[in-house]
Structure formats: C-alpha cells, structure tokens
Amino acid sequence: MGELARWSLKVSRDTDIALRTLLATRGGRKGDLSRFVEEAVNREVLRETIRDIQARHADTPGTDIEQLIDEELAEMRGSFWTEHRR
User: What's a BP term from Gene Ontology annotated to this protein (predicted)?
Assistant: First the structure.
C-alpha cells in the first residue's frame, strides 16, 4: 500500500451504520473500513479519468480510436513475447 496518510472524515450516522453493517456481513476485520474507502476513492478517480478522456476525444471517430488501440496492443504483444521468450 506504500506510505499511508491519515484522513479525518465525517459521514452521516446512517452511512456509518450501513457501511459497518455491510463490512460485518462480510466478516469484517481490522482495516476493512480503510480498504473500503481507498477502493471506493480509486474507483471514482478512475471513473472521472475515463470521463475526462471521453470528453477530450468526443469528436474523434470511433474507427480512429480502434486503430490506435489495435496499434498499441500489437506493439505491447510484440514486446511482451520478445521479453518473455528468454
């Protein structure tokens, strides 16, 4: 997980109870609350990043995007097999 930062958060009592109940039904352990929050934040950051990229490329034809993806995948596959044949 790397270096840790401490956060102080305030949430409604209903949210607190709902989340702690959910974690308890999953056999909650120490650290589960922190892991849940970190995973939720990471998912939301990824969603926002995807939305930003989609907005920037809204005018790009889908065929151009598919071609770029195909080219990058081909390059990555080639380098993967070159590196892992050794």
Answer: regulation of DNA-templated transcription
The widest CA-to-CA distance across the chain, in whole angstroms, is: 57
Rounded Cα gap, residues 38 and 18, in angstroms:
17
Once rounded to an integer, what is the mean pLDDT over residues 36-44? 97
Domain enclosing residue 43, as ranges: 30-84
Q: How many domains does the chain fold into?
A: 1
Q: Are 36 and 23 in contact (CB under 8 A)?
A: yes
pLDDT at 8 over 80: yes
Burial of 5 (0-12, 13-18, 19+ CB in 10 A): exposed
Note the pTM of the prediction, 2 decimals: 0.69
Report which of 38, 32, 49, 33 is spatially closest to residue 2, judged by C-alpha positions: 38
**78 within some domain:** yes
Cα–Cα distance for residue pair 77/86, rounded to 1 Å: 15
